[in-house]
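The records we work with from here on pair a chain with its fold. Each token is a code from a learned vocabulary of local backbone shapes. A record is reproduced here so that you can trace the correspondence yourselves:

_____
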Amino acid sequence: MSIRGCADAAGVIGLLWANFDANSASDADLFYLAGASEEASNMAHSLSATASGIACLIAEDRDRQGVKHGALQGDDLPTLLWGIAGTARAIEKLAFVGGEAGFLLQERYRDRPERERGRRTNHITSSDRD
């Protein structure tokens, strides 16, 4: 597998998922990875609130008469935006991994004989994953 670019969080998550044998993973591991979708949602919400707050600070500083604070003006702004973009890429990869793991777990559960379906995976504890 050829990886291009820097080893940022999204690239590392993508590489690890591409090399992870999800078909032979335990139900506990897939259940754990499926939780990445919820975490991605939480991260996206937090990033949105943070970016909105920063945008308000910048807009207020630019509109202010007199002394300006200089918050995130000039060269600081592109660095901030690249950081936000990198975080958004990592969130997207987490959501993808969570979705794929959840799908595989559902498929696995669906394909089990009826007598085994009573074993619920949502009762898996952290010690079951270790």
